[in-house]
Design brief:
Largest sheet: 5 strands, mixed
Strand order of the largest sheet: 5-2-3-6-7
Radius of gyration: 20 Å
CATH topology of the largest domain: GTP Cyclohydrolase I, domain 2
Shape: elongated
Strand content: 15-25%
CATH architecture of the largest domain: 2-Layer Sandwich
Distance between the termini: 36 Å
Number of strands: 7
Order of helices and strands: HHEEEEHEHEHEHH
Bound molecules: zinc ion
Number of domains: 2
Length: 211
Amino acid sequence: MSNIPPAERPARSRREAPPEGAGFVVDQERIRKAVREILLAVGEEPDRDGLEETPDRVARMYAEIFSGLHADPRVHLKKTFAVRADEMVLQKDIDFASVCEHHLLPFMGKAHIAYLPEARVVGLSKMARIVEVVSHRPQVQERMTEELADLVMNELGARGAAVIIEATHTCMTIRGVRKPGSTCITSAMRGTFQSNPATRAELLSLVFGHR
Ligand SMILES: [Zn+2]
């Protein structure tokens, strides 16, 4: 999926999914230098009042907003509880903010995650946790949607999983075609949500029904 040449890849690929907190530390000095370069390149004076501390602030901010690159969302889905019910579980309106990997500008919105448990469920806060990890990476909304659906489907051994994301992309609203207020909606359906139109219809009415 990545088209970065191997030489430029960080030592640890995200696909190996190291345990949370382990390993890679963001090279903040490198970010500071790069931000200073950008300021110079656009004709600014990086040493003037107001910009002096900007490279450092941006470095710390990037370490935060890309912290999900070095975290494994699966750890949040390990602790499950046995249930007798097998009805749909839907976590609606999970707020998130991510960064579009094409422009490095934020996109933000809401994620809705549903699954049909196979005897086991996770705590309600866990869906927000996995959204947090997956959104704190350079992202595209479509891939983020797929990644979340696969995580829930595979880690919970669910009969079905569905993710719908609604987001506003600042790369659409503050530049380029400038379409303020436009929302991008993506969805990913797995298992029963894919095979059973009635299940999918129930989900869509639960998510979009009362608007
Ligand atoms: Zn973009």
